[in-house]
Design goal:
Layout (H helix, E strand, L loop, with lengths): L17 E4 L5 H13 L4 E4 L6 E4 L2 E4 L7 E4 L7 H11 L3 E3 L2 H8 L1 H10 L8 E3 L2 H11 L3 E5 L9 E3 L5 H7 L7 E5 L7 E8 L2 E9 L14 E5 L3 H13 L4 E9 L2 E8 L5 H7 L3 H11 L2
Parallel strand pairs: 1-2, 1-5, 5-6
Antiparallel strand pairs: 3-4, 7-10, 8-9, 8-10, 11-12, 11-14, 12-13, 14-15
């Protein structure tokens, strides 16, 4: 059974367009947000992150040719790169940006996010960060084989490797374009069986959740890598953990990944710019509509 909540509708029409900052490849998010805002009679402008060209004039940062909106939702990489300079300036001038730029950038660094979550008392897997081949070997030997290596700021399971022996370190070297590009190393949790749970949290509530299972021959449960998903009702302690994780990182909404270990559930990572097609499809939750209601009610 899906968990669903509604926020009160905003009583006045926005004076400026709300804005979705999204790359064209995020077609599901673009379509669903456009539908949600249209149903609510609220205008929505869709802008690619690359279109937010920061310009500094007399000490003020603005976007060339684009008026500051009342509210912004951004998807993957919307709050990183040059567009983050524009969004930060808009935040300072009163635009509601979800998620906030600083919180998004913190969450994108898996090591710093793990530090913050651990400080909040949330169970974490041990981890190490490497930037060159020699350090890869040190980290892998520290955790022992098999262990997992993935890009520090990656997503969707891309370039995530299960290292079974020192020879597999070549996979990391091949995926790292140059020395200095960080990878995160963690122990492999064999008892999880290639299964995790993604809880979508918005405004301090769990909207819905899915369980993801890795395809045969793989250990990655990401739907983008062929993982299978089903809608679930998370356990009470999992929901509490997910909400606390989002709060600890200063996010308004996020996808929280939880895995089962011998010592209990662990927050594997938090995605501050989550795609939500799988949650909508398998948990039967109108994520876009809930986010539209939440954003409009908060303004």
């Amino acid at each position: 059974m899906a968990l669903a909540y509604a926020w009160p509708m905003h009583s006045r029409r926005p004076t400026r367009d709300s804005m979705l900052v999204a790359f064209p490849r995020h077609a599901h998010a673009i379509r669903r947000f456009a539908e949600a805002f249209q149903r609510r009679g609220a205008p929505l402008r869709v802008v690619s992150p690359g279109a937010l060209v920061p310009c500094l004039v007399d000490g003020r940062v603005s976007a060339v040719g684009i008026e500051r909106p009342d509210a912004v939702i951004h998807t993957w990489w919307g709050a990183r790169g040059p567009s983050s300079l524009v969004l930060s300036a808009w935040e300072a001038e009163g635009t509601r940006v979800a998620n906030r730029v600083a919180a998004t950038q913190l969450t994108a660094d898996k090591f710093l996010a793990s530090q913050r979550l651990a400080a909040a008392g949330l169970p974490q897997l041990p981890c190490a960060v490497t930037t060159e081949a020699a350090a890869d070997r040190v980290a892998a030997e520290h955790f022992g084989y098999p262990c997992v290596a993935k890009p520090l700021g990656g997503s969707s399971g891309e370039h995530t490797f299960l290292l079974r022996s020192p020879e597999d370190l070549a996979l990391v070297a091949a995926a790292r374009p140059a020395d200095g590009v960080p990878f995160l190393f963690q122990p492999f949790v064999a008892e999880a069986g290639g299964v995790d749970r993604r809880l979508f949290v918005l405004g301090g509530r769990v909207l819905g959740a899915i369980e993801r299972r890795a395809p045969v021959g793989d250990f990655r449960s990401n739907v983008a890598q062929g993982g299978q998903a089903i809608g679930i009702t998370p356990a009470a302690n999992e929901a509490t953990m997910a909400i606390a994780a989002v709060r600890a990182l200063g996010l308004d909404y996020a996808g929280v990944d939880i895995i089962a270990t011998r010592s209990g559930p662990v927050v594997l990572e938090v995605n501050g710019e989550p795609q939500f097609e799988a949650v909508e499809t398998h948990a039967g939750v109108d994520v876009a509509g809930a986010m539209a209601d939440w954003l409009l009610a908060a303004r």
